[in-house]
């Protein structure tokens, strides 16, 4: 049975469970929450640049991760118009983030909307990596991103296509600028530092974009039996991922801002706990079961090899 039919069979039960969850009140944002949503990624970005300018690259990578995750959340909420700002402002935010993240968010937005219309179906190119193994998702990150761009441009309106091409042009301009500043001999220390920061930022963003498939697709969608996505309940992990791993909650109620996904998760746990039992990170019991199963398989294999190599056991078998 393909993914389309499987999801279609689940839909009535999922819709029934959704009907018992109060969620409309969670769409509202206070002014403080809106300000938080708009400011969230940029302190981490500035911090990563400063660390990189000092050649403190380990700390810079930590700040870059926080920037990427926070920016990913901001863009994601922008796709669903749940940032609490106008559509025109969202367009500007996505344009800015496209240059900073080194990826065209308006082309990704088109494929993401299709992902919600037909999750893990034949037309869902965004969810494609969830259907394979983890190592396929890990290795397919770069080609996956290019496929997203092609599909996103094909699905986009004329206006969205124009903005996406503008994003590609601005990204290309940033790359050329970084290369020119790096290659040309410049005696001005400020220019040299700028080139160092730009190259660092380009490399980390490219690596982060290549890893999206394993984390944001395979990690939240693989092997989902009861529903179409996974979720997470580890408070520290959710804090460090800015609530992005409350993924089944997001799929069931995409209009709810990321700010309120923890509260939505509590309500869903009470009303439909079977929809939230598949977690992104395995618990200790699952880890120990995996280790024991593999240890037993290895033990049985060694025992069979020993039996086959012993001539006396062969004679009396």
Outline the structure in words.
It is built from 15 helices and no strands. The chain has 317 residues and is an all-alpha fold. The protein folds into 2 domains: 3-275, no CATH class; 284-316. α5 packs parallel to α9 (158-183), α6 (105-117) packs across α8 (141-155) and α8 packs across α10 (189-221). The longest helix is centred in the middle third of the chain and has 33 residues, at 189-221. The two termini are 44 Å apart. The model is unreliable at 1-6 (pLDDT under 50).
Major pleated sheet: none
In round numbers, the mean pLDDT is 88
User: In one word, what is the shape?
Assistant: globular
Instruction: Output the number of helix runs.
Output: 15
Class by alpha and beta content: mainly alpha
Compute the gyration radius: what is it? Answer: 23 Å
Provide a quick synopsis of the model.
This protein is mostly helical. The protein is built from 15 helices and no strands. The protein folds into two domains: 3-275, no CATH class; 284-316.
